[in-house]
């Protein structure tokens, strides 16, 4: 009978590693029909990331890669894996974190990322959105998550250029890309995000090295390498909207590796559009960033926030008015 143990949410069993043959605690990878020990799993994970990067020519010798790190399991796993890969693949690695101006949550998040970057030995740039007059809050027809996403997207381009990065990497996972594609399909938009967006005027190449990697493996990589992960839930987070992910998990139970196969099928079925950038661009009238409108998203948002006081802070639990 198998003995099961848990390394902070990652289930390990006693068994024999398929690669090195050691009898020890092993991780079962049903997606790949593999059982691997801690050491061989780390190598396996890094090789997968490397293969995706090489397949799509994401980065190589002489590149300066800026990785956007949130402190969560996905970008943390990618930070530590890319650090190792940077040494063998010959690119330079920098980390970039946005302090999202959400009080103590963002302060603790920043502390965690500083610690991770220190452990990984990767230089870290921090941008505080509060310094730019921005906050994560509902705006006009946009919910807070859409505002946050727009801020991060714009800042990523701007900061990458300031840092002299030739490549910008995010930790979007197999599930992220599937979910995005699936939502599009449900409104009859036939579009799959691509692993690489080529550089264009003013914008660095954008890459998603974890596009073929399920999230579960990212958590396992962090746990098995004893890397601390920032696990606090974002104060703006609501369970709604994430439930489509359960469809994929169910599919994966019925058909191991189903998520990956589905993504690969989508990619085959829907050819990449010629130009994925959002139409013609011109310099923002105020800051000069490329935009499709008169003012870029960041300038529009900071105008909006400047004209309105912050929403009242929520009262701490248990305090009645
Ligand atoms: P999300 O929009 O939260 O799904 O995040 C998408 C990607 O953006 C992540 O994989 C990270 O690479 C990056 N990211 C998320 N939050 C931050 C942050 N606070 N600072 C820097 N990068 C982030
Ligand atoms: Zn602007």
Folded structure, characterized:
By secondary structure, this protein is α/β, with parallel strands linked by helices. It has a single domain (45-274), classed as Rossmann fold. 40% of the residues lie in helices and 16% in strands. The chain has 9 helices and 12 strands. It has helices at 38-55, 73-89, 104-120, 144-162, 174-186, 215-224, 244-254, 258-269, 297-306, and strands at residues 4-7, 10-16, 23-29, 34-37, 64-68, 92-99, 124-128, 167-169, 196-197, 205-207, 282-283, 290-291. The strands form 3 sheets. The protein has a 6-stranded mixed β-sheet with strand order 7-6-5-8-10-9, sandwiched between helices. Strand 1 (4-7) and strand 2 (10-16) form a beta hairpin. Helix 1 packs across helix 2 (73-89), helix 1 (38-55) packs across helix 6 and helix 5 (174-186) packs across helix 8. Adenosine monophosphate binds at residues 68-70, 74-75, 96-98, 100, 149, 152, 170-172.
Shape: globular
Summed up, the domain count is 1
SSE topology string:
EEEEHEHEHEHEHEEHHHEEH
* CATH architecture name: 3-Layer(aba) Sandwich
| Uncertain parts | 313-321
According to CATH, what is the class?
Alpha Beta
For the largest sheet, list the strands in their spatial order. 7-6-5-8-10-9
| Small molecules (ligands, ions, cofactors) in the structure | adenosine monophosphate, zinc ion
Helix count?
Answer: 9
How confident overall, as mean pLDDT? 89
- Enter the CATH topology name: Rossmann fold
The major pleated sheet works out as: 6 strands, mixed
| Number of β-strand runs | 12
Measured distance between first and last alpha carbons: 57 Å
Helix content: 25-40%
The multimeric state of the shown protein is: single chain
Strand content: 15-25%
Superfamily at the CATH H level? HUPs
- By helix and strand content, what is the structural category? alpha/beta
């Amino acid at each position: 009978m198998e003995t099961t143990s848990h390394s902070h949410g990652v289930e390990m069993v006693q068994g024999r590693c398929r690669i090195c043959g050691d009898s020890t605690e092993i991780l079962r990878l049903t997606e790949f029909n593999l059982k691997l020990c801690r050491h061989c799993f780390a190598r396996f994970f890094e090789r997968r990331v490397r293969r995706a990067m090489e397949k799509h020519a994401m980065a190589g010798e002489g590149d300066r890669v800026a990785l956007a790190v949130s402190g969560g399991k996905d970008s943390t796993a990618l930070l530590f894996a890319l650090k190792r890969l940077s040494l063998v693949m010959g690119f330079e690695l920098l980390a970039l974190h946005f302090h999202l101006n959400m009080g103590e949550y963002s302060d603790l998040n920043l502390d965690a990322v500083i610690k991770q970057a220190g452990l990984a030995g990767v230089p870290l740039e921090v941008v505080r959105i509060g310094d730019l007059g921005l906050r994560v809050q509902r705006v006009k027809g946009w919910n807070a998550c859409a505002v946050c996403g727009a801020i991060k997207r714009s800042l990523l381009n701007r900061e990458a250029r300031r840092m002299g990065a030739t490549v910008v990497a995010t930790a979007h996972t197999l599930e992220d890309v599937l979910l995005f594609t699936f939502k599009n399909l449900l409104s009859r938009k036939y579009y799959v995000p691509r692993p690489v967006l080529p550089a264009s005027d003013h914008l660095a190449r954008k890459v998603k090295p974890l596009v073929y990697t399920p999230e579960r493996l990212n958590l396992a990589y962090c746990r098995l390498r004893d890397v601390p992960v920032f696990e606090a839930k974002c104060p703006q987070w609501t369970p709604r909207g994430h439930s489509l992910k359960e469809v994929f998990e169910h599919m994966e139970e019925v058909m191991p590796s189903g998520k990956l196969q589905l993504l690969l099928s989508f990619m085959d079925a829907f050819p990449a559009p010629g130009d994925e950038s959002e139409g013609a661009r011109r310099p923002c009238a105020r800051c000069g960033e490329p935009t499709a409108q008169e003012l870029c998203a960041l300038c529009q948002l900071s105008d909006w926030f400047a004209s309105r006081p912050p929403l009242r802070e929520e009262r701490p639990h248990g305090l009645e008015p």
